[in-house]
Amino acid sequence: MNGTDASAFDVAVIGGGIIGVTAAFYLARRGKTVVLLERNGLAEGATGNSFAWINASSKAAEGDYHRLNARSLTEYNVLASEFGEHALGLTACGELSVAPVADQSRHAALRTQWQLLQDLEYPAAWVDGMALSNLEPCINFDRDYVGLLNFAELSLEAPRFVNFLAGQTTSLGAEILEGKPALSLEMGDGGEILGVKTSDALSPPATCFWPPVRTARKNYRT
Ligand SMILES: Cc1cc2nc3c(=O)[nH]c(=O)nc-3n(C[C@H](O)[C@H](O)[C@H](O)COP(=O)(O)OP(=O)(O)OC[C@H]3O[C@@H](n4cnc5c(N)ncnc54)[C@H](O)[C@@H]3O)c2cc1C
Asked: Ligand 1 mean position to 129 CA, how many Å?
């Protein structure tokens, strides 16, 4: 593997989107030796095409999933306090949903969501037309609208985040290999995963597998 000792890795991560790179970062930070295999380039999958609104308000009715998303908001803020928002591509923009007062069903739905968020002790505020105009002076709300402001929510420039975290990860000793697809998993007799077969996508041809990437414990988490 390009001079890398293939037996030296505790973990092989497959995929260099936001999930894979973040996992690789935290594993490397906890002292694991990590290799990440990405078949194309980092953040070129769903991550690079995401709206990247970091929120839990849209999952308010979803219990544990809401709590998981709220926890991720906290973790982004922890990272921001360490590295700074700019380096990570984070913007503390908040999120504003509005409804015309005259539209009873939209108004009621927004109100219900606010109630849910209050019950969950989520940082959100109900805003009247005057406050809306102050928040968004370039939009003419005519005081006929009300809004729900999720003031703690964030937006993310996801490719920037991924590339920054990848840099941190490699500085912790991990290997990040782009243009390196994982072709298959090597299974042991008991069905355990022993390694990942990969190849150089360009040369040699895909039929020439590299030696499998092996973990010291013969127990890959992928
Ligand atoms: C239009 C759109 C809007 C979205 N808006 C939001 C939003 O506002 N908020 C939000 O939280 N989420 C949003 N999402 C969802 C979010 O973008 C995804 O949940 C997230 O990017 C998934 O990250 P991932 O790392 O799992 O996947 P990906 O970014 O797709 O990464 C997977 C990577 O694995 C690589 N790969 C696949 N197979 C192999 C292999 N065999 N070997 C090596 N590499 C391989 C791929 O090349 C890819 O780079 C949106 C998604 C889209 C498409």
From this structure: 37
